[in-house]
Amino acid sequence: MNNVYASIKRISKGVDSKKIIFVTALLLSSAAVARPHTEKVPNVPPGAHNQGIDIPEDAQAPLPDGTPVQILWTNDTHGFFLPTYHAEYSEIDSYAETAATEGKIGGYAQIAGLVKVLRQGIWEQNTILVDTGDTFDGSPVAQMTRGQAVVPVLNAMGYDAWTPGNRDFAWPKADFLAVTSQLNFPMVCANLQDATTGEYVFPRYIIKQIGGLKVAIIGLTSLAGGGQGFQVLGGNIPGTVLENSISALTADIRASENPDLVVALSHMGFYQDQKIAARTTGIDVIVGSHTHHNVYTAPTVANADGSRNVIVVQAGSHGKFLGQLQLWVQDRQVTSYSNALVRVTTQNLNDLHATPDSTVAALAEQAYDPFADYLDEVVGQSTTVLERRGDTQSTMTNFLTDALAERYGVDGARFPGIRYGSSIIPGSVTVGDVWNIVSPNFGDNKVYTFTQTGAQILGALNSGLNAEYGTDPYQWNGGDVFRFNDRVQYTFKVNAPNNQHVRSLSVTKTNGQIVNLVTNGVPVAANLTTVFTFASTLPGGTPVPGVTAVDEIVSYIQSKESIGPTIDQRTVQTDSAPTNIADIY
Q: Is residue 373 classed exposed, middle or buried when 0-12, 13-18 and 19+ CB atoms within 10 A define those classes?
């Protein structure tokens, strides 16, 4: 018995959502579902290997009606072709124990081994493997080689389709084209255009024959924070231009190709995908990415004309999960589906009788070897878990901003709310870990010093909180709120209009003076012109000559007996709305 669990949903041919039956069952890689269970599949407890509720092995159920199609996918791997550590915000206190039990997670060789097992039985000829972007930027080696080192590993995976993500455009246009020109699998994107000519960069859709069914695959991408030389249809904020284009494209595909299933590979974001599903027609499934959501139980969304319930899925990030969606299709409608996130750990591979793919493993090691001596050098010790995520702060960025402020003797330090970067567990800290902390691609591996007024600090904070907690998903950029050092402290409300989330904001200058910029939700006008000194690894102001951001943080760590950042009171939420949205689904 394998240990993959899933949420099973049977869909009536009508679109009345009240007629959808939600049940939970054990998903077998080579058969159908087991006895349904009425509980919703829970989130994975820290350290757990599987999702779902244990169901007896002999509790079998008949196959659903229709032809089976299995979609396996990865998303937001961020160039982490080898296993790594990756904690969620909710796991900060427990992840050291989790890591000691399950080891590193992800890695393309491990993913390939799972894919091989999950293709067995009735799925042997009825499976497609896809990726939805943010593939070439993130890991230290990916950053150092501008994605080139990842290419041979990807080409050995057997992908059937890929659409780019926003961080795949981290470098100039020529670098993006150089990397993608070497890929041996189809690239697809319905909204990516050359900024000069307006021509589409990749085919807008492709057709795959899967298990006797015709499957149309379209792609959608975002250029948030990148995209030199490119543009997306309708602009960086989605709207009616993109929606109308999607509906027109799928109508054309259905008229000209007569597909049994239309699948969108999307790098727009989990909530963005749901809005797109509700405001377009023709799509059956959205395989998503960008926001790093762990979608254990896939929602369905009634589309714009009420003809279909669109299934929306996503599988976290950093290769932690292999996404699995099993569909049964009859008369060009999905009659039933089941989804699962298969945690990519040694234990799960053993439970599924899977082994890492030796060819992929060799290519991954070959890609890493030239950089191993440099990246594996130990530069210090940590007593706590450093992880990237968290709406307004994290242990990793608390450390980075505090280190910059201390090293440069400035009032404030800030860092963008990016969501990628592997975690660091208590113990040795290496140069490679520092690359994960700094993510030097964002600032050309430089440190910048500059000044900011109180009004500018408040403006940056408002912008981030609006994007994180606004009411329109199309306005969300897929990242978290700007990070500040501990001299910049604020409280905020989630449930508030744009530009009114901040309840209090103060900056303590290096001379000890506390400057209040917002009190009781009201900006202190007299203090908004106060000037503060800042440092950042994000471009702005004057680059510090003769230093790199990575070397500066390495030197800082070496100057300390150990580091041990924690979550503290620099940011405090004052209402009861949920935080850390990525942990909810």
A: exposed
Distance CA 32, CA 34 (A): 7
Cα torsion through 140, 144, 146, 151, rounded to 10: -70
Q: Give the pTM.
A: 0.89
**Domain 377-583 CATH assignment equals 3.65.10.10:** no
Cβ 128 vs Cβ 159: under 8 Å: no
**Sole residue written with tokens 């960008």:** 290
What are the C-alpha distances in Å from 470 to residues 110, 279, 519? 38, 19, 22
CA angle 275, 276, 280 (to 5 degrees): 120
CATH 3.60.21.10 for domain 5-367, yes or no, is yes
Residue 288, SS3? coil
φ and ψ at 62, to 5 degrees? Answer: -70, 155
3-state secondary structure of 234: coil
Over its C-alpha atoms, the chain yields an Rg (Å, rounded) of 24
Candidates 540, 527, 539; CA nearest to 458 is 527
| Alpha helices (H) along 345-394 | 346-351, 358-368, 372-375
Q: Count CB-CB contacts under 10 A for residue 389.
A: 27
Instruction: Please name the helix (run of DSSP H) or strand (run of DSSP E) that holds residue 245, with its range, or none.
Output: helix 240-256
Interatomic CA distance for residues 61 and 44, integer angstroms:
25
Reference 394, options 449, 440, 436; nearest CA is: 436
Strand order in the sheet with 333-343: 21-26, 5-10, 333-343, 321-330, 67-74, 127-131, 161-162
The number of C-alpha atoms within 13 Å of 124 and in the hemisphere containing its C-beta is 3
Domain ranges of the chain: 5-367, 377-583
**Position 578, amino acid:** P
Query: How far apart, in whole angstroms, are the C-alpha atoms of residue 156 and residue 28?
Result: 26
- pLDDT, one tens digit per residue, over 301-334 is 999 999 999 999 999 999 999 999 999 999 999 9
Span 90-132, pLDDT tens digits: 899 999 999 999 999 999 999 999 999 999 999 999 999 999 9
